[in-house]
Amino acid sequence: MLGRGLSEYYIAWWNVENLYDVMPWDERARKVKNLKDLSTKLKDWDDATLEKKLGQLAEIIKEMNNGRGPDILGVCEIENENVLRSLKDKIKSD
User: Are 83 and 19 in contact (CB under 8 A)?
Assistant: First the structure.
């Protein structure tokens, strides 16, 4: 928590560990070529797997800050902006 005057902000950082998109995108071909184990990780990655992981992450993130969620959330290991938006939407949904 950071405090400035009367305002406090709950800031969190989380490595969400390999949050991949289900749809291939331009950079994926280059990444798969350079990271041989990535194609193995993506083998069984589908809509259901993504939805399950998004749901689990969102549930935990919403619990931060006494159930109010963080004011600012930093994340890493997200494949692209599409899955980042999906995570944001899942966090905002009730």
Answer: yes
